[in-house]
């Protein structure tokens, strides 16, 4: 009996055939065809079900986890590290759609579209209420300069925005005019019109966007979170919006999802809620396949991964 690579993503038959050709010594099994996980033969898993963590980790020969998302903070890292299980993520799959999501918010805000949408619901013709502006010449600060951050920087620059970024070491990246670290960016926060979080969740980024952070933002500024929910102290953001410490905010991710119907955020006129949809990707299986196939071929040949291997020390 061959070792099994078990996939929670239901690849098309031709994709399964290509995966099988890449690793003939393994058996590719789809969850839709075999809901019972073959623990005794499980070598690798594509995707992860949190509710099945104990079942998956009970597989004694598990050596590789391929996440379908860029963030991997939900994985059981203590056991993964103790067993030296390789992990790769889906970084890059969501770069274009999240870029478009963020730019849609920025453009809609500058053109006053959120206000006009409210006015339409109230049957009001407001010609001078929202003062539509353009984005050219405005400044954007992106926390996280990986695949998504770099794509956003590229396309925001094309719109005339001045883009700066934050990464672990403050290393230069294309299309960023300046780079900071989490510790050096503090003095510059007030100078930006738009602040976007795309960082992975780590010990350093958990709760980073809090009352102290929002108090440093300019009253005209906009905050957008498409990173991880626990990076933002959401009650602090609500208080900052109500106090006018920033003018508008949007979040696609929250520490508790779905967002409770009792949350005060639903009723804030200067806050946009989207239900964790910024990363929804058309043709997702094909884009994931472009990561899985070379990783599977490499894993079969050498026991190593070739694309998007996660550094367990950094969590991304």
UniProtKB/TrEMBL annotation:
Name of the molecule in the record: NAD(P)-dependent oxidoreductase
NAD is among the record's keywords: yes
A Pfam family it matches: 2-Hacid_dh_C
Domain of life per record: Bacteria
PANTHER family in UniProt: 2-HACID_DH_C DOMAIN-CONTAINING PROTEIN (PTHR43333), D-ISOMER SPECIFIC 2-HYDROXYACID DEHYDROGENASE NAD-BINDING DOMAIN-CONTAINING PROTEIN (PTHR43333:SF1)
Entry keyword NAD: yes
Keywords: NAD, Oxidoreductase
Domain D-isomer specific 2-hydroxyacid dehydrogenase NAD-binding intervals: 104-278
